[in-house]
Amino acid sequence: MYxxxxxxxxxxxxxxxxCLQYFLGSFLESRWKGRWNSLCMAVLYAAGxxxxxxxxxxxxxxxxxxxxETVWKMALSLCILFVLAMCFYKAxxxxxxxxxxTFQAVADISKYVTVILFSKMGDSVVELWNWxxxxxxxxxxxxxxxxxxxxxxxxxxxxxxxxxxLFYVSLRKIVRDFKxxxxxxxRTELLFLLTPSAAGLFVCLLLRIxxxxxxxKVPKMLYDRYPILTIVIPAILLLSLLSIxxxxxxxxxxxxxxxxxxxxxxxxxxxxxxxxxxxxxxxIYSEIRGMKHDMKxxxxxxxQLSKEKEFxxxxxxxxxxxxxDLNRTFDRLDMRFRTxxxxxxxxxxxxxxxxVRLVPDLEMDxxxxxxxxxxxxxxxxIGIILGNAVxxxxxxxxxxxxxxxxxxxxxxxxxLRKGNLLVLKVENSFDGKLVRRPREEFPVTDKPDKENxxxxxANIKNTVEKYHGTMDYMVKGRVFILSMMMKNEKCVKxxxxxxx
Length: 500
Fold this sequence. Notes:
By secondary structure, the protein is of the alpha+beta class. The chain folds into two domains: about 1-265, no CATH class; about 335-500, Histidine kinase-like ATPase, C-terminal domain (Heat Shock Protein 90). The chain has helices spanning about 1-25, 35-55, 65-90, 95-135, 140-175, 185-210, 220-225, 230-310, 315-330, 340-360, 380-405, 455-465; strands spanning about 210-215, 220, 365-370, 410-420, 420-430, 470-475, 480-485. Helix 2 runs antiparallel to helix 3 (about 65-90). The longest helix is centred in the middle third of the chain and has 80 residues, at about 230-310.
């Protein structure tokens, strides 16, 4: 019986070790790769906890421990967690304190709730078999001992299963709700997160101190004197556990709202600046086109006159060559890209000249990029979509070129018209390495300032959704394909939707 209980306890702490590496690994970057790292951490945690139970006796809630013994045991348990986090993970982050304290609090709350609720079940089982003995149903001492030990073992197994289930489900909910795991927590936010966990941990410490008392050197349970505590204490513990779980969810909602607010402000500024920029560039290019047209007519007249005047015979060749060079210079002012949309033409020409300074052999193909004459989508929304898409594509091509100078780099644009739907595709070459993280909608940016960068796809998605559209991306080998589909209709409210 004792060996069976010992094996059960070993199984439980091994399971806790597995949960620990799962919990920490969901937030922190591992120092070593591979499954052996996780297994080694789980075994070391179980060994440390088993060693503590050997020093401070078997880890049972329903036994009397000295005040300092209880405090030291909790302090050493937290130290073991911190040391393992530092050894196996890059844990020099504020969130590490939240992870360690929350893990210990959830473990203790799960254990205390279950043990207190199951203590009455164990007493009921003993009373049941005593009743059977009194009624003559069980007649031999051997049968009584086998039945009693089997029942106690079954209750203990069920109790450990409930502890493990409540513990694992709680940790999993925290991992699932805490989605922004790379978010840099500030001091006030850390205090907000830690308060429920620390409160739960101290409640468990208090219960461990006062739950079992000695009367005439005989251990007495506090809820034996006050039976209502068998309901009140588990209720308090469960409420404490819920405060931890929903505190995490509330914190995550706050992060999302602040992030959406910041993105909205940044995006609005981008829209405003891009709109002003597009209008100015369109005005400048319109003036240049007009000047070019007038100058070409003037040059044609000058060339004709130079041919008719014989006294310019000696200088005529030099003059005509100069005028021809001047004419070719004006020809270069022609728009390289013509899509049927003035803003798109202006933007693509501007982006192309910027890009070829970074990637000289970049190929930008717009032969299949044609906007319909009846385009109802706002021009500056087209500018936001193309601007962000081209910036991301140029960055990817530049990164590929730095790694492989001989690689082919290109950006290709395609538009398709299907009834009232406009489909826009942007394809570009890249190095084939796309970093995705669980529960993240977009690939991770490689820029150092991740809070203010890496928003290109989010901006595109927000703009597309204004026209009841969708955005998607896929990878084919070393080609990144960005697809957008929008309704060709006017936007009722020209506002930036909040990102959900």
